[in-house]
Write a structure and sequence with these properties.
Receptor for all-trans- and 11-cis-retinal. Binds preferentially to the former and may catalyze the isomerization of the chromophore by a retinochrome-like mechanism. The protein contains nine helices and two strands. The protein is an all-alpha fold.
Amino acid sequence: MAAYTLPEGFSDFDMFAFGSALLVGGLLGFFLNAISILAYISVKQMRTPSNFLVFNLAVADIMLNITGLIAAYASLFYSHWPWGQDGCSNHAFMGMTAVLASISFLATIAWDRYHQYVTNQKLFWSTAWTISIVIWGLAIFWAAVPLIGWGVYDFEPMRTCCTLDYTKGDKDYITYMGALTVFYLIFPAYVMKSNYDAIHTYFKKINKHRWNTSLPLRVMLFCWGPYEIMCIYACFGNAKLVSPKLRMLLPVLAKMNPIFNVWLYSFGNEFYRGGVWQFLTGQKFTEPVVVKLKGR
């Protein structure tokens, strides 16, 4: 059996610690998102166009959980990536598709919630399906681009998982990362902030705050913001000057996002959690009524 040396900057304990974090986060996220997915499939009353968006978010997040579990397995049992460069590219492609789709559905759910609470406009099935197909199609397209040369997939610092190689900092990386930053960070963040601010204003008018409207955007930026900052920094500086452990910590934090999402959008969603409860206990749920302002 070939002997593999540990990556620079990592000890056996580091491999165990990061691998354990990926394992716990992956298992917990997978379990919770599986409940969300199975509840939607099993409880007929849940199958509405708005809940279909939450269902798609759970599908994207469970894909990210799977990539985290693969990385955890490689870290804990091999201390290196055992499936070659092609396996690395496939792993990174799956992870990137999941991330881009997940962030897109976060923005779409914010837009739909605005119409649920403020304008009282129901989402049609045709619109929900069209949006979902477009989101998945664009996510697959942007995730496939590095496979054909615009950006490159390579190993993360611990060399037990794969992502976009931000260490080169060449023109291809800069232009690709610039496009992702605009379309998958700035634009989704703007959509989320504008819609949740409008919902907050509406809640103040009816004097009833049904949930924390600032939390969804804060959670997304908490999980993905530090990693995105590092990727943007790599456009202008040498990312290799950043500590390998810090460069590994940031994607591990980002991979925890599915756990927060399932609590916010499945278990914490008043239109969705009743169906989850019915799936788990068999008790029927009644869909909540949204209070509307007079004249609307």
